[in-house]
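[job 0412] stage=complex_fold ligand=flavin mononucleotide status=START
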Amino acid sequence: MAKLLYINSSVRNTGSLSRQLSAEFVAKWQAGNPEGSVVERDLMRNPLPHLTEQLIGAYYTAPEARNADQAHTIKLSDTLVDELIDADVLVIGAPMYNFSVTSGLKAWIDHVARVGRTFKYGANGPEGLLNNTKVYVFIASGGVYSTGPAAGFDHLSTYLRSVLGFLGLTDVSFIRAEGVGQGEAAVASALASSRVAIAEALPA
Ligand SMILES: Cc1cc2nc3c(=O)[nH]c(=O)nc-3n(C[C@H](O)[C@H](O)[C@H](O)COP(=O)(O)O)c2cc1C
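[job 0412] stage=complex_fold status=DONE, emitting structure tokens
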């Protein structure tokens, strides 16, 4: 039974394009996978805490050596990692805030980038431990970054490609609703091109 993990990170409840498009994708995926299951993590409704000294101490302590506080503190991170390891498909709604991911999405990454669980240090340096997970990232941005003069300011897709690849997730597709700060026609055009990309990703 296929499993999809659905992460949303826009702080907008209303009018969010990354939420809208990723939700359309997930609904279409569910229609094509009626036996499949979806686990949703909404980082706006249920924000994750920032890292703490105690938590990173727990990350770098073997499970059997953790003290009671560390064992308690690491539970949420373990649950998030379990969800990610279990997923066959990962869908991320990723608005661009200040040229990169939202702080909510960064917090999720900080909880799932775990030595010994999602990456390890091997003979040739760091090695991602995740694989076989197809990733779809729904980017929404006011400006245009896929091409043109602002391309060098895109620290969102470049960052996600790097950090997901670091964990072993190399099969990543970016679906961009970009230039949406340029008025209604630009929004309509961005929605239309994203829907074409969804149809290509999930043919009926
Ligand atoms: C705090 C904040 C920072 C933003 N920073 C950028 C930015 O650096 N570049 C950009 O093109 N758009 C920026 N925008 C515009 C958003 O990327 C755009 O509104 C997008 O649609 C937000 O995603 P959402 O519709 O899913 O909420 C920013 C918006 C907010 C609220």
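The longest strand covers residues 134-141.
[job 0412] exit 0
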